Structure prediction request, 239 residues.
Amino acid sequence: MNTRDKNLVGVYVWELPVRIFHWINALCIVVLCVTGFLIGDPLAIMSGNEAYFSYWFGVVRMIHFITAFAFLFNFAFRIYWGFAGNKYAGWKNFIPYRKAQWKELFEVLQVDIMMIKKKPVESIGHNAMASFIYFALFWAFALQCLTGFGLYAQMSKSFLPHLFVWVVPLFGGDLMVRYIHHILMWFFILFALVHVYLVFYHDYIERRGVTSSIIGGWKFIEEDVLAEDDAKEKKGEAI
Prediction:
């Protein structure tokens, strides 16, 4: 489909708080993955200086912990904005409780994954497949916060980490919690690779400004698609 041959209407899809969350979250994940990998498998750096002159591992841990707090508060804000934001940011789009959502989910599966259909699914915000994956991702965020701060609670005297002292016993001990935390790190890395690929893929196929929308907030939608979405919303069927 070539949307350049159609009449396009600018739609303000991603509000500023959503865009800020996205980029803070992306930066936090990069920093946490790099520092987390170094913590899990430290480099053997030889130096002739005194130990307190080359306290690089302590700096890495400090950066990891500070970034973890930023990740937690940013995630908490996104949970709130799921209730306070516009219809494209609302939680009802992420939880597949309607028949129309499951129908669109399988349509996207046939187009993007199985490639047995050529006509792309028309959606303004996230399509149902993306919404469902993001919903699962939010649960992964929550589990990563629980396991990370559960481990941190064992070595911190601060109030907030001590709210998570119950996590390690619940998951069966320190080793299991570290294992889950490490596996989730690789999950986020793989997700980021697939996410970036699909963003550019849909941007190229649909020509709606998918990539630029997470910077400026605007997408460019065909008039007939926008009218159809408005009609579905009135009937309570919009995704």
Remarks:
- The two ends are 21 Å apart (CA to CA).
- Residues 31 and 64 are 7 Å apart (CA to CA).
- The beta strands are 8-12, 218-222.
